[in-house]
Amino acid sequence: MVKLGVNIDHVATLRNARGESFPDPIQAALVAEENGADGITAHLREDRRHIRDNDILELKAAIKTRLNLEMANTGEMVAIACKLRPYMVTLVPERREELTTEGGLNVLGNLDSLQRSTALLKDAGILVSLFVEPSENQIAASAQTGAEFVELHTGKYAHAYTAGSPKEELGRLIQAADQSKELGLQVNAGHGLNYENTLDILVIPHLVELNIGHSLISESVFTGLGSAVGRMKALISVPASSPV
Length: 244
Ligand code: PXP
Hints:
alpha/beta
């Protein structure tokens, strides 16, 4: 069965918007685990816009499943990961101005550096995954890095699904998964997946885990808002006390 990794970055986004200590991404991770998440994913960005250094320390200590740390391939991040030793590191491309991870890694163009980082991470006992577009060249290069996994970027598929024509993108993902398996790479997938487009994704062969964040955190606003409002309404529904 395909595993579910839950990305809790956007709980931290909400926390940071008010500079408060809540909502707490660690608590979100524990709720996700209680409800079947097989792993927790968090992206420590260079600008720390959501998850912060302390969050990943606390996550590692608090969760009972496995921590998948998403990060850029930089010396700073590799050093943090080697110290923290999460279960898995997923290397992603990162640009400061982007809203979210906008494309896959250029593994082909950064082979030496990815080989070096992968070796350091593996020496620290961490599984390494590379976030890549479902492209033949990038998968072939990924196999040369020493990484154990690729995570196939499903963003283009998700957009094509919304536009009503996902078949071609789904075909690319299936081909990329087969190629990965042939080259000895295990296959994760993620980005842009939601309640509508995820079922079709399950036709991709060799899938180990899906990483899903934004749609789950968004859905939880509406599954939770009704009871949150009702609780406050009940709290204040007492006769007003007379002014002193
Ligand atoms: N996988 C990777 C590598 C990502 O960078 C992200 C976004 O942080 C996700 C999965 C989850 O994407 P989404 O938030 O669209 O579900």
